[in-house]
Amino acid sequence: MNTILVIAQNTFRESVRDKVLYNLLFFAVLLVASSLIIGELSLNQEKLIIPRMGLSVMLFFGGLIAIFIGTGLVYKEIDKRTIYAMLAKPIGRGEFILGKFFGLGLTLLVNCLVMLSGILLSYAILSYNTDGSVAIAWALIPAGYLIFLQLLLIVAIGLLFSSFSSPALSITLSIIIYIIGSLSKDLPVFAQTIPFIITKYLALFLYYILPNFSNFNYITYVAQGNMIPLNDILTVTLYAVIYTTLLLVATIAIFQKRNFK
Amino acid sequence: MKTYFAVLIIIVCLSILYPLQKIIDASHPPEEKVQQFLYVSSPTHIKELSFGFDGALADLYWLRSVQYYGRQLLNENNEVSFSQKVDQKLLFPMLDITTTLDPQYVQAYRFGGLFLPDYDPKLALDLLYKGIKENPNNWRLYQALGTVYWQIKDYKKAGEIFLKAGEIPKSPAWLKIIGGVMYSQGGSRATACQLYATLYQEATDDFTKGQMETQLKRVYALNQVDYLNSLLERYKEATGVCPPSLTLLIKTVQQNQEKGECGEIIQIQVNEKGELISILGDKFNYDPTNCKINMPYRVFDPLK
Questions:
Q1: Which of A58, A90, A175, B210 has the fewest CB atoms in 10 Å of its CB?
Q2: Is residue B210 part of a domain?
Q3: Is residue B68 assigned to a domain?
Q4: Chain B contacts in chain A segment 49-68 (CB below 8 A)
């Protein structure tokens, strides 16, 4: 456990050194600029647009970090040959993978927390009344949490691919899985329209086996002022935990069989 | 980790995923709109390809809709002018996309309800019915729908819609009053003024306020024309001839205390050249051969 924490800390430090968190600066500029001009352009819809834009940008940048850094986590160690020094020590390959996963997870957590705070602050400023009262968009917090879970799932997907293929291929495959996972909600409806029984069940099988990213998407829902039901948060959390566990176990199993000679 | 142990964990996880996804689907059913997508429909296409960014895309299309409409209101001096006819052929597709991406975008439905009737009332009705289907308890959408029916002179339907809006919990009481007025005197200018004045007061942005103010002024301009025509008729009855120009009426007009159909005192301004000008700022187009004022070119009767 201690080993996993040390690797996670180092992975986090490495991403800070690699200036991954610089995207926050860009996000801050974007948010301030949006707050200033969106109200003018949108016929007073800024209270709807700011949370939505903010959460979408959070998903977009988080997704970029998860895919591009997640897929390079293992490969970089192999490419720089630092993996030999590491695995020569009493570190299990499973611990190495988990450490890398939690390290990038921590980077994404910081990223999400800062971005979410920025969105909440912008919203509070926009809703500031002359009597001194401000509105806090509490509904955005669970939505931000679900985005974070989605990003962890993307990291696990990236790690799985990077455990047996090159970074370029891992990135491509991860993006494809993200696209398929975002569209997979249509598969049950598609299955209803197919007359062939095998294809019908294949579509349903794929629906349940592929990651379903639409489970995590509550951005529009919360921006409209709705609160995500607690039951939904719990089931989606369970979904993320199970799917991420599955991917990490598969990654570790593949990585343990990998020959570095 | 032993391989068989890893395989076991993977199998267990996979077997949990199925019932779990069933639970998620029960609270979050897959959208039936996909079938429309299969038979090709542009807004649903965009929604399918948004990859989770449908909210942000809805905002972008909303901004585009507002900018598209707003740009058309700019006159040759780059100033916003609400009294010019605009080409709105792209407004419906843009709002349709916005509201497909976010079916709860009430402002987009209302925007279409207010501005599409000038171009094609059927499109405004389509958009508002779509909005009501998605937001059945939003009285503002019924208000916009009733207004469109009033504009196409279906006063009975407009009355029904306003009364229905008045039955929605937390809706204002005046909706039922307007509903009643629609039934009894839907085609009157007084109703038009009442409706536009309400929409003006309800508007939260300068854009809609400006447009509603112009609509109100158009009705007032019609009252001004009627008033001037009645003066010209009285002049002809008294003298047997038509006045050669409107300047002869200036004194009478300036002392006027007569009210128009909307209850407003008709006040007509005189410009620096000594010409009578309408509330919209246009010179009245007088035809001395038949003693009649033609409509100022920017006034098109909202009731016709």
A1: A90
A2: no
A3: yes
A4: 49, 52-53, 55-57, 59-60
